[in-house]
Amino acid sequence: xxxxxxxxxxxxxxxxxxxxxxxxxxxxxxxxxxxxxxxxxxxxxxxxxxxxxxxxxxxxxxxxxxxxxxxxxxxxxxxxxxxxxxxxxxxxxxxxxxxxxxxxxxxxxxxxxxxxxxxxxxxxxxxxxxxxxxxxxxxxxxxxxxxxxxxxxxxxxxxxxxxxxxxxxxxxxxxxxxxxxxxxxxxxxxxxxxxxxxxxxxxxxxxxxxxxxxxxxxxxxxxxxxxxxxxxxx
Length: 234
Known about the structure:
CATH topology of the largest domain: Rossmann fold
Strand content: 15-25%
Radius of gyration: 18 Å
CATH architecture of the largest domain: 3-Layer(aba) Sandwich
Number of strands: 11
Strand order of the largest sheet: 2-1-3-4-5
Number of domains: 2
Helix content: 40-55%
Order of helices and strands: EHEHEHEHEHEEEEHHHEE
Number of helices: 8
Shape: globular
Structural class: alpha/beta
CATH class of the largest domain: Alpha Beta
């Protein structure tokens, strides 16, 4: 059973999310501010966090930064009442895996939760077994082992988030194929982008910072202006 931490200063929202999540078989732990969320992670085995952004005292983004600095790598989905791209990108830059803008519907929340947990467990972060795979994918100095969910660049293991891993795998399985941001979102998130293209761009930037020698002049993940991104054969 997966345990999901719900953190929001609105008790009605926490109660509603708890009802839907427990009905779907998840265990939940509740927190009502950033400090409580950090303490909950320290004292419980958490598999995913639903975190409100705007909270009194320590905000959700501040709490997430603290959790990442502690080595907490569980998926974080931000809940925010703001719809501006700048707020979404700020959260993604600080370590969030996804975001949901309020008001949201239950179907969307549950779909995002399942998607993030699937990636997390496939990368070995949870208790579920990885999806079997027979071989590694290699491109230049990058080796992606789809069975162990390990990526190495020049022989050194690179730590990727589940989302970054899925984006890299998409590129490496389809070298030289150009993908638009909407296509990448559809293939990785298994959903329509509906304005979430900026989310993909942020994750690609983070991915470049980890696998490229010079992210400003990338060797592998190239922009195809006006069309999207592709992985160049090494």
